[in-house]
Amino acid sequence: MQNRENFLNKLAERMGRPRQTVPAPMPELVNNHPMTRLTDRTQTELCDEFINFARVMMADVVIAKENELPTAILDICEKYGGGKIIINNDERLVELGVTPTLQAKYESYIWDLNQPQQNITQAEQANIGVVYGEYGLAESGGIVLFSDKDFGRSVSLLPEKSVVVLRKSKVLPRVAQLAKILHEKAQQGERMPSCVNIISGPSATADIELIKVVGVHGPVSKIYLVIDDL
Length: 230
Known about the structure:
Strand order of the largest sheet: 1-12-7-4-2-3
Distance between the termini: 61 Å
Structural class: alpha/beta
Order of helices and strands: HHHEHEHHEHEEEHEEHEEEE
Radius of gyration: 23 Å
């Protein structure tokens, strides 16, 4: 650092111009698409975009009214083989009847913050993982998951099949709106999630000769159980 000024002065001299100590102004934006794209849609139109894109991304989308969720989650589990199920310790899933319904029918394990190794073991052995999605993104068909002590990432990543419960009213246009929500939470001093996962459909790759292979590094099947609350 002792020769910093001399080095920068010599560099500017070789470039044939004076030292620039003030950043150049940002160019005027041609458009504001990152913030405004899809924001002209109604909530119903956003949900339609989200569902259509999710299906393109090979996610299975099941739509149900709130009072139909217990039946819908059982139908999904039967379709995808039942077996061991792991569920996030999420009060919202309890209130919707998802957690008690699964506990009554299947061998179910609830994520336990006091059992870290047991959590991972159970997630590895589970056929189906069930989580509650915070938001959906219309532009990509992706769902947003927040992780914390009761919402383990392994629940949505390690089981062979992953079920996400999501409300239609929580579908956003795109990731810009999600970033704004998180920024506002931080400004208000709210505790941020330990991890924010944006997941679009089942795990897949097309790195080898552009041949798409599903289930390489995560769930083979992604199921969105969408609550029709509009």
